[in-house]
Design brief:
Largest sheet: 8 strands, mixed
CATH class: Alpha Beta
Number of strands: 8
Radius of gyration: 19 Å
Structural class: alpha/beta
Strand order of the largest sheet: 3-2-1-4-5-8-6-7
Length: 317
């Protein structure tokens, strides 16, 4: 997901204008719709993901997020939390990141002790990852025809990618093929219910099909995987405070100004740049998607249908 991606644009006129802006300017993202802001408060906890020199950055196309851009920071941190959540469990494992984008996620897993192979279709992403993250094995390839042998990896990671794929079922079948028995497929994707509410087609023009929790579960089980555990990504207490500060939605505050062509006020720039992955929470939901263990959060319940992103774990039998 990129900077224009959001968790609930129920203003139909605004959604249409957003699609128009993006649809008529390929490669546009929120960063491309606003003037670059000046220096900002920097509170990034992951040192090796700090801002890169311009010539070291992968272009922000609107289709993926990249580290080191202050106005993109909310979306980058919302992606980062998923990698942090799984990093320790990947230690000592052979990991495939299918759809690795800029490469920062694979680098985080490698730093945690995993042996990581990345596959991506985009030539610029492949070359950037090889240059920026030499600790990763980077392969150019199609996700519905993975260039790996059968039963060759312990974990497949697919974060914020499956919604971009035309043949999602074929991709799941490929994941099952390359996973060893007992291996895990880890998938995160925007929650269709909150991301494109009330729409027959995705708000984001780069998405082909978005999923809700039930649809994602069915996709995984129909593909021959089992033991699906569903989690949700939510705003933590600090982001809830920022939502209240910015009229009910920090996401809306960013997008509305981009659509209007307005500069961000200095405090919005600072608030967005100061967000860290710790400001998000990932909660496991119960089978009925209604409740979560109260010990894991200050929320009494965790409704999967209210989550920002879905995070699923499935096992190859």
């Amino acid at each position: 997901m990129a900077a224009f991606e959001r968790a609930g644009c129920d203003k139909c006129g605004q959604a249409k204008r957003l699609r128009h802006v993006l649809g008529t300017a390929p490669g546009t993202s929120l960063m491309g719709m606003i003037d670059a802001q000046g220096s900002t408060t920097d509170r990034r906890p992951t040192a090796n993901l700090d801002a890169l020199d311009t010539d070291a950055q992968l272009a922000l196309t609107g289709e993926r997020t990249v580290p080191g851009i202050p106005a993109e920071n909310y979306w980058f941190r919302r992606h980062e939390i998923a990698y942090r959540f799984i990093a320790e469990s990947c230690r000592g494992k052979q990991v495939l990141e299918a759809g690795s984008g800029e490469g920062y996620g694979g680098a985080m897993l490698a730093a945690a002790g995993a042996t990581v192979t990345c596959v991506d279709y985009d030539a610029s992403a492949v070359e950037h990852t090889r240059r920026r993250y030499p600790e990763l094995t980077m392969i150019a390839g199609n996700l519905v025809d993975l260039p790996l042998p059968d039963e060759s990896v312990d974990v497949v990671v697919n974060f914020q990618v499956i919604e971009h794929l035309w043949d999602q079922a074929a991709f799941i079948a490929e994941c099952r093929r390359v996973l060893r028995p007992g291996g895990r497929l880890l998938v995160s994707t925007p929650n269709r219910i909150t991301f494109s509410p009330g729409r027959d087609t995705p708000l984001n023009p780069f998405h082909t099909r978005e999923l809700d929790a039930a649809e994602l579960t069915d996709l995984l089980t129909d593909g021959g995987l089992e033991s699906v555990v569903m989690h949700g990504v939510y705003h933590g207490a600090g982001l809830a405070e920022l939502d209240a500060k910015w009229g009910g939605s920090l996401i809306d505050a960013q997008i509305e100004r981009a659509l209007a062509g307005e500069d961000w006020p200095a405090d919005l720039v600072a608030d967005v740049a100061a967000i860290s992955a710790d400001d998000f929470v990932i909660l496991e939901t119960s089978p009925d998607s209604a409740t979560a263990d109260k010990a894991t959060t200050d929320k009494a319940t965790a409704d999967i249908d209210a989550s920002l992103d879905l995070f699923a774990i499935a096992v190859r039998p």
